[in-house]
Amino acid sequence: MSRRKLVVALATIVVVAGAGVAVTALAAPEEREPVADSGRPPATAPITRGDLSDSSQQDGTLGYLGERKINGGPSGILTRIAPTGSTVARDERLYEVDGRPVRLMYGAEPMYRTLKTGDKGNDVRQLEENLAALGYVGFTVDEEYSAKTAAAVKRWQKSHDQKQTGTVGPDAIAFAGSAVRVKEAGAATGDQVGPGRPVLTVTGSERVVRFKVPVSDAGSAKTGTRVTVQLPDGTSAPGKVSSVGKTASSGDDPQDRTPKIDITVSFDAPGKVTGVDQSPVTVDLAGETRKDVLSVPVNALLALPGGGFGVQVVENGRTRDVRVELGMFGQGRVEISGGGLREGMKVGVPSV
Fold first, then answer.
1. What residues contact residue 266 under an 8 Å CB cut-off, 6+ apart?
2. What is the spatial distance between Cα 170 and Cα 180, in angstroms, rounded to a whole number?
3. Among residues 132, 172, 171, which one has the least CA distance to residue 148?
4. What is the pLDDT of residues 215-249, one digit of tens each?
5. Following DSSP, what letter does each residue of 292-333 receive, concatenated?
6. Closest alpha carbon to 79 in 152, 185, 188, 234
7. Cβ contacts of residue 232 below 8 Å, gap of 6+?
8. pTM for the full model?
C-alpha cells in the first residue's frame, strides 16, 4: 500500500471515530529531518489559511413535538371529533359524546376523577390554574377545591351552556401539556366510546425535525448545536439540537444495522415553519469551527516511515517531506501545523 493510500485510510478512521475531534500526529520514536526528494508529485495544492468547520448534512423528517393518545372520559356515542391536522388550544373542544363536549385544559396530571368541594391534589391546582388563565378568578390557586373554586367552575359551565353543578370531571375535561395537534382519530362519529378507549392521537403543536446519527458521530449533534434545516418548499429555517437520545438502536433497515441515536431539532421560530407532516428535509449541522488555521486536502497527507504524518512540500522544483501535527478534519480538508509551514506553500497531492 502506498504511503498516501495508507494515510487516507487512517484519516477515514479518525473521522469516523469522532467528527470534529482534534487529534495530534502519532509521535515518532525519534525526530527525523525533512528528506530532500527530486521526484515531483503528479499534482499540487496550496496550503490555505482560514476557518475550517466539521459541518455535515443529515437526512431528517419534519414532524411535531411529542405524541400521546387521548382516551375517552364519558361513555356514550361519539357525536363530534376534532379533525385530523387541526390544533386544539385551551378550553377548545377535543370531541363530544352524546352532544356533550370534552374540552382541553393544560397540565401534566391526568383528569382521573370528578373534582368537588373538599378535594385536594395537584389535579385541583391544574384546574384552578386553567380557570384563572381563562379569567374565572375569585379563589386562591392551590391544591384545595374550595367553595370559591366551585363558584368559578359554575361560571365556566354557564359560559358553555352546561348545567351549573360546580363539579367537573373526565366527562368535561382532558389535560395535556399544551395546545395539541390532532394526528389521527382513534374512533369515528357514531362509535361507542368509553373510559380508557382511545379517541384521538395527538402531538404537540410545535414543529420539529427528527433524524438519526451513528453512535460514532454523536459528538457532531450535541444538545445546543446550531443547525439550518432545508425545508421541502426550498426555504431554510434556523434551529438547534434540542434533545439527543440516550439509547442506540439498529433500526428497521436490514441493509444497515449500524447503531444510531435519535436526534430532535427545534426551530427558532416554529410558528413560521410550514410543510406536510413527515416530509423529508436536510439538516445542516454547524459543528465546530476552527478560526484562522492552516489546512490542506486530506489526500495531501503522507504516512512518514518513522511514524506520524507529513506533507510533501514542493519548492523551487524540489520536494521535501515536512512533519505536521493534525487538528480538525472537515470539508475534505485537515488542519495542520508545523515548523516552516505557511499560507500559499504548495504540497503534493495525487492526480485527479
1. 65, 206, 208, 239, 240, 242
2. 18
3. 132
4. 877 777 889 988 999 999 999 999 999 999 888 88
5. EEEEEEGGGEEE-TTSSEEEEEEETTEEEEEEEEEEEEETTE
6. 188
7. 62, 275, 276, 279, 280, 281
8. 0.58
